[in-house]
Design brief:
mainly beta, Maltose phosphorylase, domain 3, 2 domains, 8-stranded mixed sheet, 5-stranded antiparallel sheet, Non-reducing end beta-L-arabinofuranosidase-like GH127 middle domain-containing protein, Beta-AFase-like_GH127_middle
């Protein structure tokens, strides 16, 4: 289907015409997955993201003497650094460095990034290091031993002096699972570049077909088919990485496609709905209504369980259509 939402929520238990409309400046249809819900501008802007991401991933310095990698992803660059040798060479043949860069990685679904650089002249290659990397993160240049990152304190750039020939740079961007305090005593779960969420099972309903000759140009609503009102025990969070041999599914942000997740114990709590289509703020001091179970977050505050704890799975936020990503915390 060719659809997107105009608006979405951290905690979204349905995606449909909102009743009552909670948005002060946007229409109630903003949550529907459609070809152009609420405004048509997103339909043409949406596909610009990845091309612009790739085209701005590696930048040349103003003096054309160095390259800086801003973003990580599978990409290749060929360029000439015209500033190399310009201040010392007396001939045009001595000016400029021909450079090719190949980045081999499954990032952000893997911590490993391999950068292969070929050049006919030495130059500096700078790499932006995310602030969330932990103490186990490392860089390895050629056959040298891996070492911890030592980025510039101001620019956060790690400089690598690249010699003429082939240089291989291996990065390990390991990170810790982190807990962010959110409103109402709730918590959000992060690891590296991803915000993680509970993927709510759903059913879809086609609302219309905008163009009879193209059935993918339709509007859809989604409704939850299973419970969503979970609180979690943050002390049980566990990151489940992808295996090194994992090949990524396409499209990677489909539900169930990301190869990594976070598991956590959670339980059902009393958590009310506002109107008929969206959840109220998460309950504070929540008590379980049943047993704890295992949850899985794909990439809230003190609630009482109404059941047993169960295992939940959290996945990256972007792979969910309906989700909970700001959780109540199980009352101790």
């Amino acid at each position: 289907m060719w659809t997107h939402q105009y608006l979405q929520q951290q905690n979204q238990i349905s995606a449909r015409d909102m009743s009552p409309n909670p948005f002060p400046a946007d229409g109630s249809y903003s949550n529907v997955f459609g070809l152009e819900p609420n405004y048509p501008c997103c339909t043409v802007n949406h596909p610009q993201g990845f091309p612009k991401f790739i085209s701005h991933a590696v930048l040349a310095s103003v003096d054309q003497k160095s390259l800086t990698q801003i973003y990580f992803g599978p990409l290749a660059v060929k360029t000439t650094l015209s500033g190399i040798g310009a201040d010392v060479s007396t001939t045009l043949s001595g000016i400029g460095a021909d450079v090719s860069v190949n980045v081999d990685t499954n990032y952000p679904f893997s911590d490993n990034v391999k950068i292969t650089i070929n050049t006919n002249k030495a130059f500096d290659y700078n790499i932006r290091i995310p602030t969330w990397v932990n103490k186990q993160a490392s860089i390895k240049v050629g056959n040298a031993a891996a070492k911890a990152f030592t980025p510039d304190s101001t620019t956060k750039l790690q400089k690598v002096s690249v010699k003429s020939g082939t240089t291989v740079i291996s990065l390990v961007l390991s990170a810790d699972v982190t807990i962010e305090n959110r409103p109402q005593g709730s918590v959000a779960i992060h690891r590296g570049p991803f915000n993680y969420a509970l993927d709510i099972p759903r059913k879809s309903t086609r609302l219309n077909t905008l163009y009879p000759v193209e059935p993918r140009a339709s509007d859809y609503q989604f409704d939850a088919t299973e419970s969503w009102n979970y609180a979690i025990d943050p002390s049980t969070l566990k990151f489940n990485p992808a295996s090194s041999s994992t090949s990524l599914k396409k499209p990677i942000f489909d539900s169930g496609a990301p190869p990594l997740s976070i598991s956590v114990k959670g339980c059902l709590v009393n958590w009310e709905v506002a109107g008929t289509t969206f959840a109220k703020p998460p309950p504070q001091n929540a008590t379980c209504t049943g047993d704890k179970v295992d949850l899985k977050l794909i990439p809230f505050g003190n609630a009482t369980c109404t059941g047993d704890k169960v295992d939940l799975k959290l996945i990256p936020f972007g792979a969910t259509k309906l989700r909970i990503s700001e959780f109540p915390v199980i009352k101790a």
